[in-house]
Write a structure and sequence with these properties.
Elements: H1 3-21, H2 26-39, H3 45-50, H4 55-72, H5 75-84, H6 91-108, H7 112-130, H8 138-147, H9 156-170, H10 179-186, H11 189-204, H12 227-246, H13 254-267, H14 273-279, H15 282-301, H16 303-315, H17 321-336, H18 341-359, H19 364-374, H20 386-394, H21 398-423
């Protein structure tokens, strides 16, 4: 085992510890990883700089701007008001409408937290009108925002599929990943999660807030856009989604489509330049750049093969996809209770790929499984940015989160392992 290989593995382990400790921002850890790799000669400077111009990084960052443009338009508000009229004054029907709305919006937005921030003020007003405690609805609603994210081939699914494609490409895998793989492996959750929230979630939720409610006012009215800018934001968003899948026929790469959409969002006035810059996910982008650089260094030094073989020996050369599914669901699920789900998913993606390369398995299903595991973590505020907001508006403490989370986590986990590994088998 040569020196560079050992150093590369040490840097890899150190980055995992830093991500897990949550002491430093994810982007800082990503940049520190690149610096360490270059200084130790595990990665040359030219290769390191090339990851800043990686197609998948550009695509992901651009989609954040395009989605921010959509949220700036009046479409979301108009849609919400229209569907509420269909409920006819029934709390249960109104609540179901908001759950469905959350399941739809979280697939158009970039994060469950952003989706929840749009829906919860409406749900809070619903609780006031029907004299229902927010503690009965806010956790189930947040659970839907998280569980239903990254299913339809739009928003977060496009971004994450780009990240996985980048890893597969970097590790020279024969397999390719598309946003439709998320849809194929997780579409039943669009039905299961809202139904669970509407029935069992509402039933399990505490009748009264365990802790005082955060003083949350209904979100401020957005300054209306000019008609052209308002329509432009909607058209640009859906144009990007369509061209993402058809752009190759016109000679347009996915990253070019997303970047074009981001630029048009500013040119058309849907977002100001300042708003567009604020929408850029700098921390996540730097984390991804660092992760891709780590992947490149592991391939170049041979460290990836060593780690893959080590994990393969732990797995025991298992040829049962369901056993692999259990392993790669439980570990990320547990870790996500203590660190951001985005970091866990991106940390485990290369581990899945390396392990599958070592045992000759198809990694696509397991990549869907680790994503599902990261989106089935609701027990602590560290898992995702949506949960601290849920705790504030619902009046929950950690104990009440665990009480509401453990059963749904078990049910969803069993479903994912059985279903995903059946429709997207490893062998």
């Amino acid at each position: 085992m040569n020196t560079q290989l050992v150093i590369c593995i040490v840097i890899f382990v150190a980055s995992l510890i830093l991500y897990g400790s949550n002491k430093l921002p994810m982007g800082t850890v990503g940049m520190a990883t690149i610096v360490a790799l270059v200084l130790t000669k595990c990665l040359d400077a030219k290769s390191a700089l090339s990851y800043f111009a990686n197609n998948n990084v550009i695509m992901m960052a651009s989609m954040f701007v395009v989605s921010a443009g959509l949220s700036r338009t009046s479409l979301v508000d108009k849609f919400s008001k229209a569907v509420v009229k269909l409920t006819g004054g029934s709390f249960k029907r109104t609540y179901l409408v908001y759950l469905i709305l959350a399941a739809v919006l979280t697939n158009l937005m970039n994060s469950p937290g952003a989706c929840y921030c749009i829906v919860f003020p409406l749900a809070l007003q619903m609780c006031r009108e029907y004299n229902v405690s927010p503690s009965k609805v806010m956790f189930p609603l947040g659970m839907v925002c998280v569980a239903c994210c990254c299913i339809l081939p739009s928003g977060a699914a496009i971004q994450e599929s780009g990240i996985f494609s980048g890893f597969l490409e970097t590790y020279e895998s024969e397999f390719t990943f598309s946003a439709m793989d998320f849809t194929k492996g997780r579409w039943p959750m669009l039905i299961i999660a809202p139904l669970w929230a509407w029935t069992m979630g509402y039933k399990i939720a505490p009748e009264q807030p365990p802790v005082p409610l955060q003083d949350v006012a209904i979100a401020k009215q957005k300054t209306p856009l000019k008609p052209f800018a308002d329509w432009a934001g909607v058209i640009i968003f859906f144009m990007v989604i369509v061209l993402f899948f058809t752009g190759s026929k016109f000679g347009l790469a996915a990253w070019e489509v997303c970047l074009l959409g981001a630029v048009l969002t500013v040119i058309c006035g849907t977002l100001t330049g300042k708003e567009a810059i604020a929408a850029l996910p700098v921390d996540i982008a730097f984390m991804l750049i660092g992760a891709l650089a780590m992947a490149g260094a592991m391939t170049a030094t041979g460290a990836g093969d060593v780690i893959g073989n080590a994990l393969a020996s732990v797995v025991g050369n298992v040829r049962n996809g369901y056993v692999l599914g259990i392993i790669f669901f439980i570990i990320p699920f547990v870790l996500t209770q203590f660190m951001q789900n985005q970091a866990v998913i991106n940390i485990f993606a290369p581990i899945v790929i390396l392990t599958c390369q070592a045992i000759g398995a198809n990694p696509i299903g397991l990549l869907v499984v680790i994503t599902a595991a990261g989106l089935t973590a609701y027990m602590t505020p560290m898992a995702t940015s949506a949960i601290p907001i849920v705790m504030g508006v619902g009046g929950y403490d950690i104990k009440s989160l665990v009480k509401q989370s453990w059963l749904v986590s078990v049910v969803f986990g069993v479903f994912y392992v059985l279903y995903v590994m059946t429709v997207l088998p490893c062998f």
